[in-house]
Amino acid sequence: MRSFFLSLFMVLFTGLASAQSFTDMTDAEADAFGAAVRAYLLDNPEVIMEAVAVLEQRQQQEAAGNDLELVAQYYDQLFNDGYSHVAGNPDGTIEIVEFSDYKCGYCKRAYPELLALIENNPDIRMVVKEYPILGAESVLAARAAIAVMVNEGDEAYNLFHDTLMRENGPLTELSLPLIAEGLGLDSAKMVETMNSTLVTQMIQSNRALGQQMQISGTPTYVIGANMLRGYVPLAGMQQIVDEAREAIN
Fold first, then answer.
1. Which of 51, 64, 103, 230 has an alpha carbon 20 to 30 Å from 175's alpha carbon atom?
2. Judgement on whether residues 42 and 150 belong to the same structural domain of the protein
3. Do 99 and 46 share a structural domain?
4. Beta strand segments in the chain, E
5. What is the domain count for the chain?
6. pTM score
7. Is the same domain home to 59 and 82?
8. HSE (CB half, 13 Å, CA atoms) of 46?
9. Is 70 a member of any domain?
10. Residue 122: helix, strand or coil by DSSP?
11. DSSP 161-176
12. Same domain, yes or no, for 203 and 155?
C-alpha cells in the first residue's frame, strides 16, 4: 500500500511539476511548492482519482509486458512438457494452459465453461497443469489424478479429472479410492502410484514453473502469449480466443 501511494504521488508530482526540477529548489521554495500542491489537491480532489486511473493503467501495462516475457521464456515448459494432459485438439493452433486445483471453487465454476469453450472451438489445444496449492486435499487429489494418468492413460485421467472437478465433497485418502472404484478404475494401483517419485517430480515441476511465472492463485490461464490470472467468464474467454486466432491469421 505504501508503494502504491508513493507511485501515486509521483504521478501527481509529474503532472504538477513537470516544468521544474524539485532538486533545484531551495528549502523555502520546496515548502512553498508542497503547500501549493496540497492546496491544489484539496480544491481539486478529482485530480487524485484521475491520477489513480493513470497509475492503474501503467501498472496493468507493466504487468502485461512482464507476462508476455514470462510466456515467451517458458513456452516449452508451458505447452510441451511431455507429461501434462492435453484436452481438445492435440494439433490445435489455439494453445491454452490451465493451472488448476481440485479444491479451488473458481476452477470448478470455470470447468463447464472451459468444456463449452473447447466444444465451440475445435482448434483449441488445452494443456492441464495440476497445480495443488490449497492444502493437503489439493495435493492428494492431484497425486491421485496424475497416478491415474500414469497407470491408465489420458482417457482414464480425463474421466477422473472430470469427476473431481464436479466433486464438492472431501478429497481424502478414503474418498479418492472410492471415487476411482466408482469409475471402474484400478484404485489399488492408483494408491500405490500416488506417492511415487514420478508423480512427485511432475507436481514439483509444475510448482517450480508456477513460481517462475509468478502464479500465486488458481485458476490461471495462458492463452497464446497472454496470461489470465483468475476466473474469466465464458464470453471473456471466447473473446480472448478470437483475438488469439486473429493474431495467428
1. 230
2. no
3. no
4. 85-88, 94-100, 124-130, 220-223, 226-229
5. 2
6. 0.74
7. no
8. 0
9. no
10. coil
11. HHHHHH--S---TTHH
12. yes
Record the cell numbers describing residue 235, joined without a space. Answer: 464470453
pLDDT in tens, 38-52: 777 777 777 666 666
The pLDDT, as a whole number, for residue 45 is 72
Q: Is residue 33 part of a domain?
A: yes
- As given in the structure block, the three cell numbers for residue 236 are 471473456
β-pairing verdict for 124-130 and 94-100? parallel
What local confidence, expressed as pLDDT, does residue 16 receive? 46
Contact between 84 and 128 under an 8 Å Cβ cutoff? The reply is yes
Per residue in 71-99, pLDDT (tens digit) is 999 999 999 999 999 999 999 999 999 99
Residues spanned by the domain of 235? 75-248
Mention every residue, 6+ apart, whose C-beta is less than 8 A from residue 128.
Answer: 84, 85, 86, 87, 98, 100, 161
Q: Give the whole-angstrom CA distance, residue 114 versus residue 137.
A: 23
Q: Are residues 49 and 90 in the same domain?
A: no
All cell numbers assigned to 84: 501434462
CA distances from 177 to 121, 134, 159, 184, 200 (A): 34, 20, 14, 11, 19
* Partners of 76 in the β-ladder: none
Angle 187-194/136-166 helices, nearest 10 degrees?
Answer: 150
Query: Alpha-carbon Rg of the chain, whole angstroms?
Result: 24
- In one-letter notation, the amino acid at residue 130 is E
Same domain, 166 and 113: yes
pLDDT tens per residue across span 62-71:
445 578 888 9
